Amino acid sequence: MDIKFYKYQGTGNDFIIVDNRDETFKKEKDIIANMCHRRFGVGADGLILLENDDEVDFRMVYYNADGHESTMCGNGGRCIVAFAKMLGLIDKHTTFRAIDGLHKAWIIEDVVSLELHVKAQPLRDTNGFFIHTGSPHLVVPVSDPEQISVESEGRTLRYDPCYQTTGGVNVNFMSAPIENSKIYVRTYERGVEAETLSCGTGVTAAALVASEIYGINESVTVVTKGGTLRVGFSKKGSTFEHVSLTGEAKFVFEGKYWIM
Ligand SMILES: N[C@@H](CCC[C@H](N)C(=O)O)C(=O)O
C-alpha cells in the first residue's frame, strides 16, 4: 500500500505530515523510522499525524525520527497549522490538541505563531538550566555555541542519569545576547539523536532562560542554523505566561511512500 505524505519545514526542522483523519496510517515504529530515514526513506526529523478531534479543529500526534511517539514539538506544531490551512480545515486562527493539551495558533501567509505550555520556571542544575516547554530541555549557556561539539557534548548530556525521569532531555547550547534581546542557539535533539537546524520547544526554553539570566522582559529573537524565531511571553512574578513561538513554516513537497 502507499501512504500519501506532505513534507514541511519550520526553520529547517523538517517533518513528514500525514492526513490520518481516515485512521488508515499504521502507527508502527519501524515504518515511521524508515520513512524518516535520510537515505532509505523520505528523510525528516519527525513524522506528524493530523487526526480528527471531537472538540477542536484537529489533533496532532508527533513521532521522533527514531519512530517513537514523543512530547510536544514546537516547529512541528507550527508546520501542522500550515498544513491544516492548506487542507482548508482552518483559516487564520486555530485551536488544536497535542500530547500536552490544547494549543492556540495564528497564521499569516507563511508565518505561524503557536502558544506553548511551560510547566515551571527554569531550574538551575550542575549542567545548566532545566525547563519543560512541552518537551524537556536543558539549556547550557556558553560563550560561543559555534565552538561546541554539539553531537558529542549534546549526546553526553542527553543521557545524563539526572534527566531519566523525563526520558532524557534535548540539549540547547545558548550564547549570551548578541544584540539587545537576540541570542544564538544550537540544539541536540532527543529521538533524532543528532543536531537539528532548529528546535521550537528548545528555542523557547533558551529564550525563557535568557529572560531569567539576562533580565530580558520583552520577546526574545532566537537565531538558529535554520533561521530566526521569535519567542513572546509575559511574566507574572517569576511565572511565564502567554508563551508563543513565531516563525516561518513552509510546504516543501508531497509524495507517496510505498510499504510492502
Ligand atoms: N523538534 C521539536 C522537539 C521534538 C521533540 C523532541 N525531539 C523530544 O523528543 O523531546 C521542536 O521543534 O520542539
From TrEMBL:
<comment type="similarity">
    <text>Belongs to the diaminopimelate epimerase family.</text>
</comment>
<keyword id="KW-0963">Cytoplasm</keyword>
<feature type="active site" description="Proton acceptor">
    <location>
        <position position="199"/>
    </location>
</feature>
<feature type="active site" description="Proton donor">
    <location>
        <position position="73"/>
    </location>
</feature>
<dbReference type="GO" id="GO:0009089">
    <property type="term" value="P:lysine biosynthetic process via diaminopimelate"/>
</dbReference>
<feature type="binding site">
    <location>
        <begin position="200"/>
        <end position="201"/>
    </location>
    <ligand>
        <name>substrate</name>
    </ligand>
</feature>
<feature type="binding site">
    <location>
        <begin position="189"/>
        <end position="190"/>
    </location>
    <ligand>
        <name>substrate</name>
    </ligand>
</feature>
<comment type="subunit">
    <text>Homodimer.</text>
</comment>
<feature type="binding site">
    <location>
        <position position="64"/>
    </location>
    <ligand>
        <name>substrate</name>
    </ligand>
</feature>
<keyword id="KW-0457">Lysine biosynthesis</keyword>
<comment type="pathway">
    <text>Amino-acid biosynthesis; L-lysine biosynthesis via DAP pathway; DL-2,6-diaminopimelate from LL-2,6-diaminopimelate: step 1/1.</text>
</comment>
<keyword id="KW-0028">Amino-acid biosynthesis</keyword>
<dbReference type="GO" id="GO:0008837">
    <property type="term" value="F:diaminopimelate epimerase activity"/>
</dbReference>
<dbReference type="Pfam" id="PF01678">
    <property type="entry name" value="DAP_epimerase"/>
</dbReference>
<keyword id="KW-0413">Isomerase</keyword>
<feature type="site" description="Could be important to modulate the pK values of the two catalytic cysteine residues">
    <location>
        <position position="189"/>
    </location>
</feature>
<protein>
    <recommendedName>
        <fullName>Diaminopimelate epimerase</fullName>
        <ecNumber>5.1.1.7</ecNumber>
    </recommendedName>
</protein>
<comment type="function">
    <text>Catalyzes the stereoinversion of LL-2,6-diaminopimelate (L,L-DAP) to meso-diaminopimelate (meso-DAP), a precursor of L-lysine and an essential component of the bacterial peptidoglycan.</text>
</comment>
<feature type="site" description="Could be important to modulate the pK values of the two catalytic cysteine residues">
    <location>
        <position position="137"/>
    </location>
</feature>
<dbReference type="InterPro" id="IPR001653">
    <property type="entry name" value="DAP_epimerase_DapF"/>
</dbReference>
<feature type="binding site">
    <location>
        <position position="170"/>
    </location>
    <ligand>
        <name>substrate</name>
    </ligand>
</feature>
<feature type="binding site">
    <location>
        <begin position="74"/>
        <end position="75"/>
    </location>
    <ligand>
        <name>substrate</name>
    </ligand>
</feature>
<dbReference type="GO" id="GO:0005829">
    <property type="term" value="C:cytosol"/>
</dbReference>
<feature type="binding site">
    <location>
        <position position="13"/>
    </location>
    <ligand>
        <name>substrate</name>
    </ligand>
</feature>
